[in-house]
Write a structure and sequence with these properties.
This protein is α/β, with parallel strands linked by helices. Strand 3 and strand 4 form a beta hairpin. The protein contains 9 helices and 8 strands. The strands form 2 sheets. The protein has a 6-stranded mixed β-sheet with strand order 1-3-4-2-7-8. The longest helix has 38 residues. Helix 1 crosses helix 3, helix 2 packs across helix 3 and helix 5 crosses helix 6. Helix content is 57%, strand content 17%.
């Protein structure tokens, strides 16, 4: 049903008229076939049947196309709501998983960025300030990333980034910019530099493996002093993410 609505929904006035003509032609053909079955081929005129069908079907087809257009618009809004993080305007985890392949290919890199000391910002300045911090982090990522890259807020203060068509040098440059952070006016009188710990997987591995080793690299970055990135090899042997998280808690 979703595919039918997407294909038949009119896009602009010309497309509406074109699809309306197709609908009327289908109705005329069906009307003509019915007359052939009833009266035989020699007693039926296609153009007369098309005119008769158009007179009857025109308002119905017009209404149907308008309804399909409305359903398509509603469909897009619902998908946007289901795949967009409302606070930051970035995509969410569902979108990221739906729009990334099961394997990270050569020339791609998966980055996970976790805002440093975000809990302290929330506890010190309040959750409204914490929300503003997340929004400005989203802006920082938009300015840092390229149009070909994908970015999503995947939970709390954690963001996933998929870089496409990148060399190791470009990957490290972007990871460094993300981790360096941005200036954040927590109050009118106090400005913080909000940094991130970034884990990077730039190897051709499964997406699940890439998430695993990048997540481990995030906590290695935190254990090493935060405000930095760490490149993670596949199947990195440095303890589970849970153990690393406990070490820097």
């Amino acid at each position: 049903m979703e595919r039918f609505v997407r294909i038949t929904a009119p896009v602009g006035k010309l497309d509406f008229l074109f699809k309306l003509g197709i609908f009327l032609m289908i109705c005329g053909v069906l009307n003509h076939v019915r007359d052939i079955i009833q009266d035989g081929a020699g007693h039926s005129s296609f153009w007369k049947n098309l005119a008769d069908a158009s007179f009857t079907a025109l308002p119905m087809c017009t209404f149907a196309l308008l309804l399909i257009g409305h359903l398509h618009s509603l469909q897009k809004r619902l998908y946007l709501q289901a795949t967009r993080d409302l606070l930051t305007g970035l995509h969410n985890r569902r979108w990221f998983m739906d729009n990334s392949a099961d394997h990270i290919s050569l020339g791609q890199a998966l980055l996970i960025a976790d805002i440093d000391r975000f809990k302290a910002i929330n506890d010190t300045f309040g959750h409204e300030t914490g929300d503003r911090c997340l929004q400005e982090m989203a802006q920082h990522l938009r300015k840092t990333l390229r149009q070909s890259d994908a970015c999503a807020r995947i939970g709390g203060e954690e963001f996933a980034i998929l870089l496409n068509d990148v060399s190791r040098e470009i990957t490290e440059t972007i990871a460094e910019r993300v981790s360096a952070g941005f200036e954040f006016a927590a109050t009118p009188n106090e400005t913080l530099v909000v940094t991130s710990s970034v884990g990077v997987c730039a190897d051709a591995v499964s997406r699940d493996e890439a998430f695993k080793v990048a997540d481990q690299a995030v906590y290695r970055a935190k254990a090493a002093g935060r405000a930095r990135y760490i490149m993670a090899p596949p199947s990195a042997d440095g303890g589970s993410a849970k153990e690393l998280r406990s070490a820097v808690a």
